[in-house]
């Protein structure tokens, strides 16, 4: 496809622009060539990008941060082209399976064992490492454990004599009650693909039957799955304007600017609520486990491209240094540390008022299915969900269409032999 090839060349040009100095000498990259990193962007990852830039003295790390969908798109284009313009790649618990399955990442097991004592890597529990294993091999250094929890305006709830909702039904009623022309009853983040999948994950796991059965057959279009998206459709009637094109940044802003009373958002956005330079609701928002639980938990980490020309030990040292316990303690206000020594430190719970809500949410949160094609299928699923929410299709018909499209995709990849 000519248009796709043009887009691929443009994307590779963007990825390679900062790497233009990586001229080859005798078939190897010059030692002074900057390390190229591409990443999703939110406050915790911005913090870690800064730590990577100063991780190894004399080594320049060019950190390119952008919204998730764009980072995933550019990483996919660069890695699928076997380009050496990327060295360090952001991956979460879903994208890592796609990248690893395609042979785009370097297994880290040997490096992990070699540097375990130097960087106290035993401090990372297996629950933090497991999402980053594919076919038994480890591919990422964890930097952040994230979980979606319930943000709510404590002052508004107290004035109304209300408690945080415990069920989806209570949540819908409160969204309706708090909804005014000046302030939405709730935020909704339904920009394709990632944001919609996050919201749908909560509904499918709380009201529905999840995403797939044990044989990777879709179950999100079950009777309960239809009820889940019908509930989502109803709640959008009390959401902020532009919810269909809103992702994490836009929803965070809506809460910060007193444009919504409550809603689902990532733990990594809690500190932003109390930032006096950006927020109008400082000390007015509290956090709890979401109604019904079963929100998404995710891990944010960094992998090494299989096609890098940099020294893998140097790249691993950058990742291990940036994810030190000291750095996690320093950034604890904006991240959920995957190291046990930090996450379970009772002093952090006293110091940061969001920690009790985070720990409560982690009790019931579930990751997305470990399916390498999950986001690829998400293109079908999110389109159909948005058609259902907008009234362009009946909910049952929309989910059946998404299930059929997903089944066709997975069948073509050999899942149902």
Account of the 3D structure:
Helix 2 crosses helix 12, helix 9 (194-206) packs across helix 17 and helix 17 packs antiparallel against helix 18. The chain folds into 2 domains: 2-17 and 29-145 and 298-364, Periplasmic binding protein-like II (D-Maltodextrin-Binding Protein, domain 2, 3-Layer(aba) Sandwich); 147-296 and 370-412, D-Maltodextrin-Binding Protein, domain 2 (3-Layer(aba) Sandwich). The strands form 3 sheets. Strands 3, 4, 5, 8, 9, 10 and 11 form a 7-stranded mixed β-sheet that branches. A two-stranded antiparallel ribbon has the order 1-2. Strands 6-7 form a two-stranded antiparallel sheet. The model is unreliable at 1-14 and 17-31 (pLDDT under 50). It has helices spanning 2-17, 43-53, 68-80, 95-101, 109-114, 126-129, 154-160, 168-178, 194-206, 223-235, 248-256, 312-322, 325-330, 340-343, 346-351, 355-364, 374-389, 395-412, and strands spanning 24-25, 28-29, 35-40, 61-66, 88-92, 133-134, 137-138, 141-153, 262-266, 285-288, 297-304. The protein contains 18 helices and 11 strands. By secondary structure, the protein is α+β, with helices and mostly antiparallel strands. A hairpin with a 2-residue loop joins strand 6 and strand 7 (137-138).
């Amino acid at each position: 496809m000519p248009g796709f090839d043009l887009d691929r060349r443009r994307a590779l040009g963007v990825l390679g622009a900062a790497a233009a100095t990586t001229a080859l000498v005798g078939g190897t990259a010059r030692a002074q060539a900057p390390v190229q990193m591409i990443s999703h962007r939110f406050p915790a990852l911005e913090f870690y990008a800064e730590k990577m830039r100063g991780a190894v003295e004399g080594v320049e790390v060019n950190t390119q941060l952008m919204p998730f969908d764009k980072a995933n798109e550019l990483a996919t284009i660069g890695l699928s082209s076997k380009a050496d313009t990327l060295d360090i790649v952001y991956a979460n618990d879903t994208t890592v399976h796609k990248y690893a399955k395609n042979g785009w990442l370097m297994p880290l097991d040997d490096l992990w064992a070699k540097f375990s004592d130097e960087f106290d890597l035993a401090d990372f529990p297996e629950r933090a490492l497991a999402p980053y294993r594919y076919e038994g091999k480890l591919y990422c250094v964890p930097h952040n454990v994230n979980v979606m929890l319930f943000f709510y305006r404590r002052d508004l709830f107290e004035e109304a004599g209300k408690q945080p909702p415990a069920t989806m039904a209570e949540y819908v009623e409160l969204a309706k009650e708090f909804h005014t022309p000046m302030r939405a009853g709730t935020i909704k983040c339904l920009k394709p693909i990632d944001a919609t999948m996050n919201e749908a994950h909560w509904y499918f796991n709380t009201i529905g039957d999840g995403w797939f059965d044990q044989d990777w057959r879709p179950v999100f279009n079950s009777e309960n799955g239809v009820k889940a998206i019908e509930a989502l459709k109803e709640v959008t009637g009390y959401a902020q304007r532009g919810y269909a094109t809103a992702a994490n940044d836009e929803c965070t802003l809506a809460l910060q600017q007193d444009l919504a009373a409550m809603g689902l958002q990532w733990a990594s956005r809690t500190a932003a609520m109390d930032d006096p330079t950006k927020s109008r609701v400082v000390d007015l928002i509290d956090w709890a486990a979401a109604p019904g639980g079963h929100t998404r938990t995710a891990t944010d980490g960094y992998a090494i491209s299989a096609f890098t020309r940099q020294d893998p030990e140097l790249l691993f040292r950058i990742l291990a240094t940036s994810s030190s316990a000291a750095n996690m303690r320093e950034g604890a206000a904006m991240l959920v540390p995957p190291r046990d020594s930090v996450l379970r430190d009772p002093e952090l719970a006293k110091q940061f008022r969001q920690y009790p809500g985070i720990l409560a949410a982690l009790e019931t949160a579930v990751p997305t299915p470990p399916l390498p094609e999950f986001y690829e299928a998400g293109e079908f699923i999110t389109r159909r969900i948005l058609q259902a929410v907008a009234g362009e299709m009946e909910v049952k018909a929309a989910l059946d269409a998404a299930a059929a499209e997903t089944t066709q995709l997975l069948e073509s990849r050999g899942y149902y032999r």
